[in-house]
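Hi R.,

Here's the chain you asked about this morning:
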Amino acid sequence: MNSHPIRSRPSLGQWLGYAVLGRKLPDSMQNWVRRDLVGPGATPRHILRSMIPFLPIFIGFFVLFPGAIWLRASMVLLSLLLALFYTAAYMDQNRARRLEIHGLPADLKSAKKMAEMERERENYRRNH
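And the predicted structure, written out as tokens:
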């Protein structure tokens, strides 16, 4: 008998490895990974998860650089905007890679996105 219960959600350490380092979670958590990457709220989760590695940089800019607070806050804001831009720009590639790592199809879409694509196909067929 297995002494470790099968977890359906990652522990804090597993989540940090998954979120920050891109590590693979156990196969027993594949449904959690699917919901995390393509379920409701996946985009805000991805953006927040992607900001975690930048926190030390933001804190360093604010704390370690000399100057007025407004100047240091401006550095952090500029860094935040740049990080958000690149996070959004590479979101699909990052999502596809995480899905592949966990043995899921890289082109997996949410049910909402699939329904939207089907509506677009039907509209195209009707119009052409």
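The helical segments are 12-20, 30-38, 42-51, 55-64, 69-89, 91-101, 111-127.

Let me know if you need anything else.
M.
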